[in-house]
């Protein structure tokens, strides 16, 4: 066979492959192809750089050298097996407890006639966005075995000879995380419960099914996309969490995977090769979970919002109405108000947590922090980055989610897969991976050191959550809505503007809010990208903490909480929720 | 309170030093004025500085007011920011002009990358150039004596105790830390990473040997990188002695009259250091004239006063008072050391980092796990 005919034969084979009906592959349209390229570039570049650098073993100043030394070091580090066991034990324990409590509370808020629903839901939002470090300090203040206020009270009341509660323990770590873990479940599952058509529930009951049967055979299967996203989010957050573990685990020698990575990254010089090698476990876990999620969801339909109308009738709790309120409100107050009050109290203390010193109270921390010229600049940067990444993120994630759900191209599946990948890099390494990405891409160099680069970083980091949440809402929208619009002569733009956008707007507001708040709180992603002029409030907080001025750091933390509460209130006033408009 | 104290001092110093600066102005050449003018056109200087809000505020206020040139400070600890600078240089990005910080990260991270500019050509003003203005003349940390300038030299008591748990009088030598009553009661700053913890640990390895540190580890040490946690645990009496943590971390606790006291200098002696007081200049700096102005201001009496006060360390400038530091367990080199003692006990130069610090850290990793 001549070269030419061989080439022609190959082309024919490729053509057959592309056209094969079983594969159902069609070349994507230009907008989808562009989206695919942009998303692919933004998420694959840092990931590829991370994997490549796990094999780069040269010391600073030496020419590049490849080898397996980093991998060998990573997986032979003493204590790594224990760290992995601890990580997965903590993650599974936390997620199991949080899912059970969170789903139950979400159901109570969304599907029953429990009073003060809005307030209850808002408390969980607030708890989710509280900064982890000062919150943990608050719990130490209460639950330190010797000096904790609660333990001291128990001993003073003669209920025990020594403090029975110990925050420095496995269960202490679970407790310190529980507020955030339950809150994210409530935040995301409440709207999903709310989107269920009451007709499904009623049909089940009319057919003679019990409450439990209805819950497990109607609610759980229909809500599975939201449950899976929140579970994956929860597990990934559990795997990469390290601030709480560092504070509470180190004194008792309890190490987790992320504290091992943190240890390697903060070595001198930083040990990126083994750190990157260790973090590939995140990639493996994420790929496994995404594969399971895709396999489970498969081609089932989760449409609950159609053109036929939608009924929401709450279940009557009867005599259980107020006990249920007491339970949810009590939990919400413990996880929200207690740390917030402790945090605010800390800002007025000369020494955080030292109540027994002479004249422990002062306004100096506020005075000094508010007089710091960097505060106003940091606040402005935070607002600009938060609003920018929130708004652009919503548009970008909507386009990705729409392409995933509403197009028939295989490229949609690829986009879906790609959109998960930023979660495969632990937060602590995402910053360095993004730094390498931006430095090695000429297009980003003109904005290097500016807030625009930080916006892009935050959009990449928020991509999995934003895309998957919008996707789960789009999955609930029936195609008949769009078809009705088309029948009436509406163009694609009309349909999007007048049908899809209004229905998804509450969810979009919430995704934007989460983007804004993540930008306000984030440290690890932006710490290496920030410059003097683009520093955010969270980086200012880090500056104070690193300079041993913890009390001033808590002042900045309270300002961040204030910003978060303000943003959440505005978002709720605009009708934000992760669900379709009621 | 600490900030207020520093600001009052700063203003006081500004009043006196402004006069001195004005008197010297006439003696300055037109070259300096041209540099300042060119620096104003460049607009700003970008510097990575140690993580201290007080230092950041103090330097920004004083420098900008004096010259009308902006400053962009990026406060950060060594490792991460050094890596960023090296990555930027490799990518051909010039963002930073100056780095001020500890030596280990510079020696291991920046020096081998060949991204540093010799410092001395940036000395313009006579009070900076003249070695007689400095205790020990010009002291360099790198072997080439060109790239890493040490403008600070001091000894600090980095062993502290809670006297309710352990009386300072009980401590005379490092061997006293092996006393069985201190088992589980000693907290140390993690010696596996650079910083005061690594300095102290390496010093102990250097003067007492491997067998000693093995026995020390057997005392069931509380090891952390969180210096605030270490200070807090000592103040609360959870531990009795700390090592590798200095005055600035203890200051809020001392002000609150909590029972904390430095231990006496052990008979084996303490190490000498420059702490964060080292200046390096990046190659192809984007603001060369502003860099020149900043370097001369930083190394002049004003800059050194602010640095010394904010960081609680002893400058080597002879015209800046550092005797007040003694009250806080810090002895400036010029106030209590001979040059021979300094060179014997310093463990921050390129030579000592390779000879003492790196083997010390390696041993720490071996004994404590890595």
Polypeptide structure, described:
The complex is a heterodimer of chains A (582) and B (370). Chain A has helices at residues 3-19, 30-53, 69-76, 80-111, 117-129, 132-143, 149-156, 170-194, 198-206, 211-222, 224-240, 243-249, 257-265, 272-297, 321-347, 364-371, 373-406, 410-420, 427-439, 451-476, 479-487, 492-521, 537-546, 550-573. In chain A, helix 5 packs antiparallel against helix 24 (550-573) and helix 6 crosses helix 15 (321-347). The longest helix of chain A has 34 residues, at 373-406. Chain A is an all-alpha fold. By secondary structure, chain B is of the alpha/beta class. The radius of gyration of chain B is 21 Å and the shape is globular. The model of chain B is unreliable at 1-20 (pLDDT under 50). At the A-B interface, helix 19, helix 23 and helix 24 of A face helix 3, strand 2, helix 4, helix 5 and strand 9 of B.
What is shown here, in short?
The complex is a heterodimer of chains A (582) and B (370). Chain A contains 24 helices and no strands.
Layout of strands and helices, then pairs:
The complex is a heterodimer of chains A (582) and B (370).
Chain A: H1 3-19, H2 30-53, H3 69-76, H4 80-111, H5 117-129, H6 132-143, H7 149-156, H8 170-194, H9 198-206, H10 211-222, H11 224-240, H12 243-249, H13 257-265, H14 272-297, H15 321-347, H16 364-371, H17 373-406, H18 410-420, H19 427-439, H20 451-476, H21 479-487, H22 492-521, H23 537-546, H24 550-573
Helix pairs in contact in A: 2-18, 2-19, 3-14, 4-8, 4-11, 4-13, 5-8, 5-15, 5-24, 6-15, 8-11, 8-12, 9-10, 11-14, 11-20, 13-14, 15-24, 16-24, 17-18, 17-20, 17-22, 17-23, 20-22, 21-22, 22-24, 23-24
Chain B: H1 2-25, H2 30-42, E1 44-49, H3 53-67, E2 70-75, H4 78-90, E3 98-100, H5 104-110, E4 116-117, H6 126-129, E5 149-150, E6 154-156, E7 159-161, E8 186-189, H7 196-208, H8 210-217, E9 222-224, H9 227-235, E10 241-243, H10 247-255, E11 261-262, E12 272-273, E13 278-282, H11 288-298, H12 301-311, E14 330-332, H13 333-336, H14 339-345, H15 350-368
Parallel strand pairs in B: 1-2, 1-3, 8-9, 8-10
Antiparallel strand pairs in B: 3-13, 4-13, 5-13, 6-12, 6-14, 7-10, 7-11
């Amino acid at each position: 066979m001549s070269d030419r005919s061989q080439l022609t034969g190959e082309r024919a084979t490729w053509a057959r492959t592309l056209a094969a009906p079983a594969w159902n592959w069609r070349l994507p349209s230009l907008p989808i192809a562009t989206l695919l390229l942009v998303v692919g570039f933004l998420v694959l570049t840092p990931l590829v750089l991370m994997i490549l650098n796990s094999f780069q073993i040269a010391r600073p100043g030496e020419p590049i050298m490849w080898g397996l030394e980093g991998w060998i070091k990573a997986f032979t580090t003493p204590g790594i097996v224990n760290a992995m066991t601890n990580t997965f034990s903590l993650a599974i324990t936390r997620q199991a407890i949080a899912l059970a409590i969170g789903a139950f509370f979400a159901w109570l808020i969304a599907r029953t006639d429990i009073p003060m629903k809005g307030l209850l839901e808002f408390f969980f939002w607030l708890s989710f966005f509280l900064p982890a470090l000062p919150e943990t300090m608050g719990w130490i203040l209460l639950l330190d075995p010797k000096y904790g206020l609660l333990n001291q009270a128990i001993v003073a009341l003669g209920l025990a000879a020594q403090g029975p509660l110990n925050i420095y323990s496995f269960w202490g770590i679970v407790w310190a995380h529980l507020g955030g873990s339950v809150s994210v479940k409530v935040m995301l599952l409440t709207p999903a419960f709310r989107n269920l058509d009451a007709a499904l529930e009623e049909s089940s009951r009319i057919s003679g099914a019990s409450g439990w049967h209805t819950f497990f055979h109607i609610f759980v299967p229909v809500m599975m996309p939201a449950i899976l996203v929140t579970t994956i989010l929860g597990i990934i957050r559990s795997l990469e969490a390290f601030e709480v573990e560092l504070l509470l685990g180190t004194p008792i020698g309890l190490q987790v995977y992320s504290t091992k990575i943190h240890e390697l990254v903060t070595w001198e010089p930083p040990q990126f090769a083994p750190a990157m090698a260790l973090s590939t476990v995140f990639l493996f876990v994420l790929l496994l979970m995404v594969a399971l999620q895709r396999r489970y969801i498969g081609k089932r339909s989760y449409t609950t919002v159609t053109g036929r109308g939608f009924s929401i009738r709450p279940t009557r709790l009867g005599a259980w109405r107020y006990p249920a309120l007491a339970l949810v409100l009590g939990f919400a107050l413990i996880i929200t108000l207690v740390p917030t009050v402790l945090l605010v109290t800390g800002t007025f203390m000369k020494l955080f947590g030292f109540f027994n010193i002479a004249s422990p109270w002062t306004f100096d921390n506020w005075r000094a922090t508010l007089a710091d010229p960097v505060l106003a600049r940091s606040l402005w940067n935070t607002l600009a980055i938060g609003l920018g990444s929130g708004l652009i993120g919503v548009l970008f994630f909507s386009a990705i989610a729409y392409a995933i759900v509403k197009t028939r191209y295989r490229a949609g599946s690829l986009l879906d897969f790609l959109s998960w990948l930023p979660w495969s890099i632990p937060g602590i390494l995402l910053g360095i991976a993004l730094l390498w990405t931006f430095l090695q891409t000429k297009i980003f160099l003109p904005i290097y050191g500016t807030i625009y680069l930080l916006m892009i970083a935050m959009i990449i980091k928020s991509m999995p959550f934003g895309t998957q949440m919008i996707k789960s809402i789009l999955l609930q929208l029936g195609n008949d809505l769009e078809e009705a619009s088309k029948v009436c002569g509406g163009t694609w733009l009309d349909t999007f503007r007048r049908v899809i956008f209004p229905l998804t707007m509450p969810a979009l507001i919430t995704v934007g809010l989460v983007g804004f708040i993540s930008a306000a709180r984030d440290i690890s992603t932006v710490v290496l990208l920030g410059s003097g002029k683009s520093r955010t409030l969270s980086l200012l907080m880090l500056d104070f903490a690193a300079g041993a001025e913890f009390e001033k750091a808590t002042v900045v933390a309270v300002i961040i909480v204030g910003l978060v509460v303000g943003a959440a209130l505005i978002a709720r006033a605009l009708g934000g929720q992760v669900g379709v408009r009621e | 309170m600490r900030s207020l104290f520093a600001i009052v001092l700063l203003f006081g110093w500004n009043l006196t030093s402004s006069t001195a600066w004005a008197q010297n102005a006439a003696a300055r050449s037109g070259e300096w004025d041209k540099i300042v003018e060119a620096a104003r056109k460049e607009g700003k200087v970008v510097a990575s500085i140690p993580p201290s809000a007080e230092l950041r505020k103090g330097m920004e206020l004083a420098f900008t007011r004096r010259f009308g040139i902006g400053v962009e400070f990026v406060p950060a600890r060594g490792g991460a920011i050094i890596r960023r600078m090296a990555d930027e240089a490799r990518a051909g990005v010039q963002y930073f002009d100056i780095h001020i910080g500890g030596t280990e990260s510079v020696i291991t991270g920046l020096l081998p990358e060949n991204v540093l500019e010799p410092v001395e050509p940036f000395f313009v003003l006579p009070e900076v150039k003249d070695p007689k203005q400095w205790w020990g003349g010009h002291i360099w940390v790198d072997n080439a004596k060109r790239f890493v300038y040490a403008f600070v030299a001091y000894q600090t008591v980095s062993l502290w105790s809670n006297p309710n748990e352990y009386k300072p009088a009980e401590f005379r030598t490092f061997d006293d830390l092996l006393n069985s009553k201190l088992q589980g009661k000693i907290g140390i700053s993690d010696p596996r990473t650079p910083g005061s913890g690594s300095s102290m640990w390496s010093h102990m390895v250097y003067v007492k040997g491997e067998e000693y540190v093995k026995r020390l580890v057997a005392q069931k040490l509380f090891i952390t990188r969180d210096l605030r946690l270490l200070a807090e645990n000592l103040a609360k009496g959870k531990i009795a002695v700390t090592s590798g943590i200095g005055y600035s971390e203890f200051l809020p606790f001392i002000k609150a009259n909590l029972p904390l006291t430095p231990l006496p200098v052990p008979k084996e002696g303490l190490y000498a250091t420059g702490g964060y007081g080292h200046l390096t200049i990046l190659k192809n700096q984007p603001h060369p004239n502003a860099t020149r102005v900043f370097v001369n201001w930083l190394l002049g009496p004003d800059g050194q006063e602010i640095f010394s006060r904010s960081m609680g360390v002893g400058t080597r400038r002879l015209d800046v008072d550092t005797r007040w530091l003694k009250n806080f367990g810090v002895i400036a080199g010029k106030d209590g050391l001979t040059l021979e003692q300094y060179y014997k006990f310093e463990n921050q130069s390129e030579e000592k980092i390779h000879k003492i610090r790196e083997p010390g850290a390696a041993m720490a990793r071996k004994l404590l796990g890595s």
